[in-house]
Design brief:
The protein is mostly helical. It has one domain (7-141): Four Helix Bundle (Hemerythrin (Met), subunit A). 62% of the residues lie in helices and 9% in strands. The protein contains 5 helices and 3 strands; from the N terminus they run βββααααα. It has helices at residues 34-42, 49-67, 73-86, 91-107, 112-141; strands at residues 7-10, 13-17, 28-31. The protein has a 3-stranded antiparallel sheet with strand order 1-2-3. A hairpin with a 2-residue loop joins strand 1 and strand 2 (13-17). The longest helix is centred in the C-terminal third of the chain and has 30 residues, at 112-141. The protein is globular, with a radius of gyration of 15 Å.
Length: 143
Amino acid sequence: MATFLAIEYMDGMLRLLDQRALPNEKKYFDCHSLKEVIFAIKDMVVRGAPAIGATAGYGMLIGAKEKGVSLNLESLKTIKDDLDASRPTAVNLMWATERLLKSVQESGYTEVHEILNVLKVEADRIYDEDAISCKKMAEYGNT
């Protein structure tokens, strides 16, 4: 059985397995901007609570990078609000965006490169936690 990634963040771009095409076709949707991440969440390119949460985490990072030198807590809150509005009933989405915002607030960092690092580390943690959870479910289901 072939394996593939449903979510992959690389070089500032988020690649999502386009779940609208499944099961007939395996294709990907690349997000280079916050607007594209919001579209992917709204249009159900990505489905499933944990996957939406991981996507939102990387969406926060992509949106923050777009702000560049003007990035601050207020602009980060706006990015969070925009992502949260993309699917208002998605609990994991709001949980992830709140977790990233809180991690930046608790870090006390104000320099853009420091904020971006905190966001990347936390988004990776969310992704890794989901991957571990999925693996454990597969192992349990295989017993």
